[in-house]
Prior knowledge:
The chain is of the alpha+beta class. The chain contains 21 helices and 21 strands. It folds into three domains: 21-222, 2-Layer Sandwich (Heat Shock Protein 90), CATH 3.30.565; 228-397, 2-Layer Sandwich (Ribosomal Protein S5, domain 2); 403-539 and 609-644, Rossmann fold, CATH 3.40.50.
Amino acid sequence: MSELEKNHYDESEIQVLEGLEAVRKRPGMYIGTTSSRGLHHLVYEIVDNSIDEALAGYCDKITVTLNYDNSVTVEDNGRGIPAGIHPKEGIPTPEVVYTILHAGGKFGGGGYKIAGGLHGVGASVVNALSLWVELEDHYEGKKYTERFERGAVARKFVCEGESPEKPHGVKVTFKPDPEIFEETVFDFEVLQNRMREQSFLNAGIKIILIDNRGNEPVENEFCYEGGIKSFVSYLTETRHNDAIHSDVIYMRGEKDSSIAEIAMQYNEGYNECVMTFANNMNTVEGGTHETGFKSGLTRVINDYARKSGILKDSDKNLSGEDVREGLCAIVSVKLENAQFESQTKAKLGNSEIRTLVENTVNAKLAEYFEENPNTAKVIVEKSLSASRAREAARKAREATRRKGLLEGSSLPGKLADCQEKDAELTELYLVEGDSAGGSAKQGRNSKFQAILPLRGKVLNVEKTRLDKVYSNASLIPIIQALGCGIGEEFDISKLRYGKIIIMADADVDGSHIRILLLTFLFRHMRQLIDEGHVYLAQPPLYKVYKKGSKQGSEKYAFSDAERDRYITELAGGGSTQNIEADRYKGLGEMDADQLWETTMDPATRTILRVTAEDAIACDEMFSLLMGDKVEPRRVFIEQNAKLAENLDL
């Protein structure tokens, strides 16, 4: 075949994917990923359809059941799907919903004024990505059924007669397709967190989650009449910080068909937790509703502080950062025609929602402060304390700068930098101890790998404010090396290394160092984690070798099971008397070549990317493990100790 023939490109090369074939060909376009996260997204889509019925006022109970064969059943008591022949498609309407993209009650016609999910493609996408789907549609007193396999009709839509036991509602059972998903086993905890969240956001709706896969069924029921007020109380409790005022402040505003709800409470902690939702979708990147909330909050607190004389004429206004220290808040808006700035619905773009939320906060919070002056004073004093700490942090930062420690040209003395200047190609190893740091410097590829030995004990930033960070000898070198600043000065475009790899011993002390560093990065450089720059090195636990064998024939094991397998392989079916399995007590025991081969060589190493997909769970865990409260940590250790009983530490 000639080069011209091989490169020939005409109309026949343009591929048209019919129906749900496009979804199976490119599932990531519809659910983001085929990993475990995408797997669970299938459940969310079907539940979202039931939630939409609830928002429309026709459903108050949703049951999600994990079946023994790892299929999932979602059942609601909504209206059901209209069962007649669709006037345009000429097939039963439920079949339209489950086999045709962009078909549903969310595209006008008054089916749903407010809806979340994938805007009408949710049911059909789940169908396309499932091995099979069984549909029971209970509509106007009659029961209808249909079965699909990999998106196609396998058993036609039929009416099975009267349905007196269940006159209305939908029951869907589906099994994810192993050809599509990397993992097909659902995580009960992940689903539990999502169902709890949806219950908080939709006051009074009962969501039941049942797991029938074990020896004994597990059932959890979620129903919160307090709605997002209960959500705030739950978040404050799980962060183990005491509230500084007893009641959760609640505000609600409406304009036309849009609704804004805000609930907030301050606690003794230093970190803010503001979560935003639009039509029950967690807008993790915020948007106009978050902007409106923050703007209104800052204005109201400053106005009250000046009106009450707490802030004097000569005092500067409190900043947004000041008034949000220790704040836990939920901002939930429901609106028609929600406009999102990305396909993942991470950021809301409707400009009118900013006005609605800001006006609601301006009016309702000012009114609350007038009626509750003691609470208002406590909140303002908290903000003033944060302002003084921010000023102390500024002075500490300037003092550090005067010493030349934070200038762009200043790099820590112990840093062994790399030659490559393109940040996307470089790696910075944060290494526990000078001994391991020395081996890493000798064993690295200096073209793209930089080494920074950690100095002294890393500060636990969960228990301190930012001013202490600038005077901490263990953290300043890290800030210098990364080059992107921290806190309000953080600028990810100045990051000097594409990968930040934490390399610590595989023991208790090493684990402690890792969690301290992750706490620092999560609290002060969160974007590094969100954008996938942070990794954990995985050094081996054992070196397995045959006595008297030549160097280079040894094997490195990263678990006890792998160690045992290598022992068997090297023994060749004979006695193991000549086989040794040395346990590494630390990175410093490895010479430079061993460290390179096992832990640093991109061709052979294993590194784990640190992610924070569930920000709520991450925030809770850092507060639990690293916060001031000892009792919750003790309970956690007692409950989970058995999971660590076989660890070789």
